[in-house]
Design a protein that fits this description.
two-stranded antiparallel ribbon; alpha/beta
Amino acid sequence: MPTETPLTETAQTDTAPAPLARVEPTSPGRPHIAAAPAVHTRISVELVPRSRSGLSAELEQVSALGGVETVNIPDLLRFSLRSWQGCGLAKGHVQRAIAHIRAIDIDPRRPLPMAAALAEHGVGEVLVIEGDPPADMGHQTYDVTSLEIIRKFRRELPQVTVWAGLDPYRQSFARERDYAEAKLEAGAVGLFTQPFFDLRLMELWAELLPACEVFWGATSITSEKSQSYWQNRNRAVFPRGFEPTLAWNRRFARELLAFARQSGGHAYFMPVRVSVGEYLAGVL
């Protein structure tokens, strides 16, 4: 998923996103969600483009699952396959593909370097994240924020739908909410969250966010080492009853999908160290 510390082919420039339903406060447990507006819930799977063959194999699994109409693909510098190239490959398997764009890789004084490639591969949606500093110090980066690059996309590629990231862990609720609002004002149609592990925290964020489309995220944490990584690197918050097992992650994925459907939002799933089919078996 989107890291910032973590895609309709028709532009949505002038169409206001459908609002999320208000989530009523409840006792700690499964949240009670008020009646939601009639919104189609999109389901996306985040796939890492390690290679064309590997991505094609995962796309086959996604296609076989049924119910998944979208994939979102990160742009990782350690792999040669760029996100928009991966999205082009995905279009043969799913209806929609969202390319992640690292803001710090884009020179604000020059035209968007991936504009032609997005058009060539038929990619109509992007997710703009800030991007982590590269391990290769020879890689050119720029002193820009997501806000600047979101505005740049709106100016130069108004036909492309732009999403932005929401990280519920990196800073205070107020600061992250304000940053999310600024991204929406800059031209993003909605938000992709970092993966959640607690429905009560999602309930709170549904209350805090302005009316917009949200892709609520979940991932698979199946070892204590992975859990420690998320706690120390991403400052993720786990509920007391969390278990690093596939069964727990599947159960939470089902609950998150129900939350998204009932609240008028969307869902994306990010399989880590487990196959797409194995993780989402019995979820969709």
